[in-house]
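Lab manual, section 2.4: Encoding a predicted structure.

Procedure: take the sequence of the chain (317 residues), apply the prediction step described in section 2.3, and record the output as structure tokens. A sample record is shown.
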Amino acid sequence: MLERKNTIPIWVWIVGAVLVIGCIFAGYRTIETRQRLEAVKSKLVSVKHSAAKTAAEADAQINELQIKVNQATSEIGQLRINLDTAQSQLKQWASSLETMRSELESAKQSAAKTAVEADAQINGLQTKLDQATSEIGQLRNNLDTAQSRLKERASSLERMRSELESAKQSANRAVVEADAEIMTPLEREASTPKGQLKSPFRDFASVAEEGRRKYMAAGCNGCHGGGGGGGMAAPLTNPIWIYGDDDDTLFRLITLGTGKLSPDDAFKKHGYKRKGSEFVVGPMPHFGEIIKTDDDLWKIIAWMRTVHCSRRVEDRC
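Recorded output:
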């Protein structure tokens, strides 16, 4: 009797060849994406330098306004000194006036002794009294002018302080906006507490087409299929997304990956666990270094939501 030979079916060879080709293609796309990521990082450095320059210009404006504030404060101090001097002179003249009135009364009393001398003294004292009254009026006018200028300077100082505060706020906003404008998914994930990652696209259908292009460019279709129908990985069109479907979970899942393909198993260390099961389940590669920006990743997630069965009229979950 002839011994039966064990042969490997031809379909196994075909499947193996397809997997090898897919791995080679995914490796090529990963290298190309990393090169693009380097370019994005270079652009990020340039934007940060620009933000630093904007902050430096704002600091220069702030310093100039601070000098003006100091000058205004000095002038107000001088005006206050002048005001104190004027008030002191006013008191002196008031005292002199009181003395003159006393002398006038004395002169009237002595008028009986010598009318001519008394009239002369009275006229002289009256002249001095008129002069004193005039000078007091002038001092009052000067005092009013000084008070008016003091109010103007105080108002000007308040405006300068308001402009200074506005300049500081503008500088702070410029720095924050420059830092927040471009972030990689890894940077956004690391800087945001768990549960607080929210998609900026409430109407995700409006950016779905752009998200689909970025999905294809990142090579996601190699595992999940071009239309999200699955392949080597679970379909995106199924009712079950095994780790959940909230924004925070999806963003970190794609950024960090899962299982052995997640660096230091970071996704699991965040406390995320499977909430369901699928026929095709495997570890998810981390795409935090492949997808260029967090904005790109939010658009990919927006497209994923449009292909979920809950969004398809012809095939509801």
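Check your result against the sample. Residues 79 and 103 are 36 Å apart (CA to CA).
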